[in-house]
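Q: Can someone sanity-check these two? First one:
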Amino acid sequence: MAVPDSVNPTAWLAEQIEHGNPDLLRSMVKTMAETLMSAEADGLCGAEYGRRSNERTNSRNGYRTRDWDTRAGTVELAIPKLRSGSYFPDWLLERRRRAEQALISVVATSYLLGVSTRRVDKLVEQLGIKNISKSQVSQMAKVLDEQVEAFRTRALDAGPYTFVWLDALTQKVREGGRIINVHVLVATAVNANGHREILGVEVTSAEDGAGWLAFLRSLLARGVGGVQLVVSDAHAGLVEAIGATFPGASWQRCRTHYLRNLLTTVPKSAQPWVATLVRTIFDQPTAEAVRTQHAWVIDALEAKYPAACEHLDAAREELLAFAAFPRETWRQVWSNNPQERLNKEIRRRTDVVGIFPDRAAIVRLVGAVLAEQSDEWIEARRYMGLDILAKCRMRIIAGDTPMQNPLPQTLTA
């Protein structure tokens, strides 16, 4: 594979216009970047490509391809290779997206500290960061840490945050000469404009009540308010922390996590039938029909599977909290699936590292991924309509006709 080593800008631009290249801007970026890299490689070799010279100290050895994310789109660059040593342009690293910069920083730090595995060593070479020095890694980490810290501590002033989702991921880290599991707590919400927003991220030693309580209190201190429904699994300590920090909000137990727990109370052969039966609860068109179907399913299970019947009856309010809100929101708030999709994106990046060198590296990478995701959500279409959110925030006036599961007492939208 070869790229042009010198470019006549006028002739090249005329050719692009003549052939009607639809990606003119991207093509221009690609050509100029490859020309710049060719010139830098010539400087390292001591002579221009293909020319004999007594001053030559090195020579070319083909190219390797690398995708480069730019404002004009993703560009596939041909990076020159040298027969002796290696070449990789520093400016190409600096222009990469925040999450990839964080990934490079974490992998490079692991490599320099001697804690990388064979897979990480291979990745380092593929990323082209074989010749990065400790000072370069330190500088990159400093810039990223400043960006992530600003994102994690920003004021949460886009409320009220009507719906909040909470979840945690487990990551491995080296501490005290051994490998331990730590927990990454993540909170997302829907803000007053109807967009999803990442509220915060924190790394704790254990996913217990104390860790969740401190995390949720930090969100309150930064401005979270107006919460009416919190969606999560039923992890020990989390529910108590939610009640202590959001006393006016309802708690929705994730239907997906709950169903897994429920199925452990029945024989394996009966699990498909029980799962189908429980799902009919969520197929109903009105809140009244949802509660009626829930009662009917309990009656259907009582004779053959009394343990499942008791389990489902005890979870009535936490499982059906979504029914107190407009039907248009049900699919979005009756489970933690939106948060699980975000977790999948985080794991796609963290799985590359495997074992982190320290907790700061976890915060750096996960924080950078979440900051990018938050930017994308701001530019995307609304997650919920403003009229729907207004209905959700309507105040129930004392003395009105009571409901079985009324909305929390909050201020009017």
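And here is the second, same format, sequence then tokens:
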Amino acid sequence: MTVTEARIAGVGTAVTPESYAQAELLDILRIDDPKARSVFLNSAIDRRHLTLPPADETGARLPESQGDLLDKHKRLAVQMGAEALEACLKNAGAGLGDLGHLCCVTSTGFLTPGLSALLIRELGIDRHCGRTDIVGMGCNAGLNALNVVAGWASAHPGRLAVVLCAEACSAAYAIDGTMRTAVVNSLFGDGAAAVALVAGESVPGPRVIDFASCVITDAVDAMRYDWDRDLGRFSFYLDPQIPYVVGAHAEPAVDRLLRANGLRRDQVSHWLVHSGGKKVIDAVSVNLGLTRHDVRHTTGVLRDFGNVSSASFLFSYERLTQEDVTFPGDYGVLMTMGPGSTIETALVQW
């Protein structure tokens, strides 16, 4: 039986209203420690969208309870998710009534019922729409979802499916004076992105050819959520060595994907790498032999939005589509990294 490959039909993004410069955040969060300030100022990030807690009478930002953070996650995920979904459908020349399957990805909070059900109610989507929720996989999860939904689209030719990544990173922030917190608070921003998939030869976007995964089991705890018993909330941990761990595994992960499809790295015209942080991008670029031009979308998204977790690679994909530099036959590699520690890759062709 012939399998009709899924194609990317459209993309859309959204952010929260408030935006802050890195230097501005140092004053707002009252960060005085020289090492912590250096982490912020050497991050290659200019601005990020964040929804910060209210200030007390002295102007200090008030720590939020885990319950308040979960409420924030729900509110922002629905708000950004709806905006990104509608922008994606418009870009794909479709409407809410065309949606056959909605897959929602998030790692910045827990919802039951899931975000997909909340958006179906919020937007009046057909209640018989198929849906999936992928929760807690981290920054890599957008490609895990794309893999699953591309399969759904191939099994239902002509029907529209959407992957929506909604990451309210403000809902995963702590306010304290530790270096662990400073590393996280210097990096992540709020953002959502959606990508539409349809299987059919007439779809103008790139076809999704293949996927490959690599779990770095020796670094399974390098990116993780811990429960902080003193603060009564979750706390995210990023191991300082993670850029080098990811960089060292980037080459075999990508080469495995390309080799399975009879390709070499020099045959790839477009690289869309997760905006995981300056050191992560540098490590991946060095190990894969990528130029600054190759990762211009990745570094541009990091500069303008910070790390928006699972949505990051779709922000980069949107920028690529706006450049109008892809040509029929061009190959592209999508690459995300996250807890596990994992590297996810996908191969597409225009």
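A (reply): Looked at the second one. The longest helix spans residues 66-91. The mean pLDDT is 95.
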